[in-house]
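Bug #77: duplicate submission created two jobs. Keeping one. Sequence:
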Amino acid sequence: MACKMAVKMFNFTTQKINLKTQIVLTKSLFTILFLLSSFLCQEAISQETCRVLKPSIDGSYTGKCKKGLASGKGIANGIDHYEGQFIKGLPHGKGIYTWSTGEVYNGSWEKGKRHGEGSYSFFFNGNDTVSVGMWINDRYAGPVVRKPMIISNTGVERYTIRKYGDINKRVLVGFYQNGSPNSGISELFINANSGYQVNLGPLIGYEGIVFPVTFKISYTTFNKLRTATHQVRFEFEIYEEGDWRVDLIN
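Kept job's structure:
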């Protein structure tokens, strides 16, 4: 008899546990469904109200939104197609734009216009053509010009490399210390792989250069307190033609 009572109590307890488990699972399921439906509704509303302000791609939009405008990464379709970054409803940042006629631009955008570095692929005179370079306000401005590159630097505290114009194809080098021309230089060696050497007052350099040009400079100079000397080596390359000035400060 005691065994039968124990079995009945076990079965009753098991039924209560199963009922509680079912209630907990049902509540969890309702919570998950509620959160999922809320997310889907918000996503649908954001897609419906998100606008693209460039008329040629304002047909449909999929992507991130901010205050009702495409903002962030997205895809826009209209007469043309665009995939990339948006800000305030316009292509802005990196993106790929494909025209309905087949041309493709891959590069930087600013306020809905090609601006910055990019490549434009198109069909011209029966041939595939690509223009790579800089774009300004939706117009091609020319190829990208590489900045001067420092190949090696030993002993130069500071330096400046500036372009002053396009008339003269030359590079002039000045040496400075404590705010004045460095008069403590000895064993100066300067060589360029193009042009001929010239001296203009305290400046030494080369004219008649064919760019790109590489300069190698070495010399011995005093330190700022003029208590000791040290060896200096400086090598650089300039790619863009023009009238350049290089100042080395020790």
